[in-house]
Amino acid sequence: MRVGTKIDVLALLDQMEEVLASAPGFPVGGRIVVSRDQLLDLIDVIRDEMPDAIVEADRIMRERERIVTEARDEAERVLDRARDHAAYVVSEHTIRKSAELERERIVNHAREEAAELSANADHYAQELFARLEEEALRLAADIRKAAARIP
What we know:
Elements lengths: L4 H18 L13 H114 L2
Helix pairs in contact: 1-2
C-alpha cells in the first residue's frame, strides 16, 4: 500500500464533493450541472487508489481475525490448564481429607477396642480375684476345721 493512499482517496472524495457543491443548479428540482468528464476522471482515479486500500484493509482484517483466533485458542488452553489444575488440587484435597477421616476413624476404633479390652481385662481380673478370695476363704475354713479336729 502506498503511504499516502488514505489521504489520496479522501482528497479525491473531497474534490468530488467540491465539484458537486460548486456546480450550478437548476432553479427547480434540485438538479445540478457538472462536467461528466471531470466526475468520471475523479471516479477513475479513486478506483485506481481503492484496490490497494481495500487489499490492505482486507489483509488487516484477516490478520486481526488470526490474532483474535490465536488469543482465543491460547485463552482456552490456559482455562483448560487451570481447570485441570483445579481438578487436581480438589482431587488431592479430597484424597488427603479422605485419608485424614479414615485415619481418625481407625484411631477412634482402636481407642474404643483398647477401652473395651481394658474393661474386659479389669472385669476378668476382678472375677479371678473374687474366685481366688472365695477359694482362699474356703481353704482357710477347711484349715480351721482340720485344726479344730486336732487334739
